[in-house]
Amino acid sequence: MKARAIFAGLAVALTLTGCSSMSSISNPFEQPSITETYISQFRDVPIPAPMSTVPSETLVTVGPDGSKFGLESFTGRVDGTSLANVMMQNMARQGWQLRGSSVGVRSVQLYEKSPHYAAIFYREGVVKTSMDVWVVNGVNVDILSLVPEVHNSVDSRMSSSTYSGSTYSGSSSYSGSSYGGSGSGQVTKLSE
């Protein structure tokens, strides 16, 4: 009986000692804080601290006025929805206007801060979330108005053309007020 009491006492002592050292083990499922930010390539786009740059997927160029444009890619072990919400708050603090968003496993947010535009794409993975930040200079709105016209013209010509095997055998052209005014273009024939 005395041996059982000593054994029980040792078991309790070992359990308490073991539990006190468990607090130093980090939880692999715990999300890091994403409220701290840093400025990376784009000076007015704050990036949450757990997100790190992916240099192999980043392409940034400098404009004549010294501002930077292009794509910067990031990855980090954060929740995609939380990241999108924090980025929305951070961008608003920097003066960016949210112009549209779509939320899901792949999400996108579109921002404007005249004369610049930013598009942030999110891809949530099993362990990490990827974020692509595109910043571009102002877009000529007149050119954007021509995109549906050119697309519909080319699309209608392509649908009336014939295809033979893996070689394009039709001829298709479009003309009208495309990018240069009254120019015309020819769709190139492709063959293997």
Task: Write structural notes for this entry.
The chain has helices at residues 2-22, 80-93, 141-160; strands spanning 37-39, 46-48, 52-53, 59-62, 68-76, 97-102, 106-113, 116-124, 129-136, 163-164, 167-168, 173-175, 184-186. The chain has 192 residues and is α+β, with helices and mostly antiparallel strands. It folds into two domains: 37-136, TATA-Binding Protein, CATH 3.30.310; 141-178, no CATH class. Strands 3, 4, 5, 6, 7, 8 and 9 form a seven-stranded antiparallel sheet that branches. A two-stranded antiparallel sheet has the order 1-2. A two-stranded antiparallel sheet has the order 10-11. The longest helix has 21 residues, at 2-22.
